[in-house]
Specification:
The chain has five helices and no strands. It has about 110 residues and is mainly α. It is flat, with a radius of gyration of 20 Å. The termini are far apart. The model has no long low-confidence stretch (mean pLDDT about 75).
Length: about 110
């Protein structure tokens, strides 16, 4: 049973490394951004996904994806690919706040 668990874990990590490798191939600067980001987050906690005995690997991968998306690493990497002036960031934040306010008032009317 241990070897089956080990095999599924290796397949799980193989898929993750394959996705990272695909990103590196598609975006040449991705490796540099990834390296810079990991230097910045070296003191943060790594993602731990508890896998139960006999649990489907697809479900474990889904859990990992959810937790990874919540960390916001990819979002931050994409935002760091190009510099945004502070005025542009403020303007986008203001437009987003106006949009959210508009949605809230529309839902109150309905």
């Amino acid at each position: 049973m241990f070897f089956k668990h080990l095999q599924t874990t290796l397949v799980f990590f193989e898929n993750i490394f394959q996705k990272i490798f695909d990103y590196i191939i598609r975006f040449p600067n991705f490796a540099n951004h990834l390296a810079k980001h990991f230097k910045l987050i070296k003191n943060k906690i790594m993602i731990i996904i508890p896998i139960k005995e006999g649990e489907n690997i697809e479900r474990a991968l889904k859990k990992f994806k959810r937790k990874f998306e919540k960390t916001g690493v990819i979002r931050e990497l994409r935002s760091r690919q190009a510099y945004k002036k502070p005025s542009v960031v403020k303007r986008e934040a203001l437009q987003h706040a106006q949009y959210i306010q508009k949605l809230a008032t529309e839902s109150d009317k309905a």
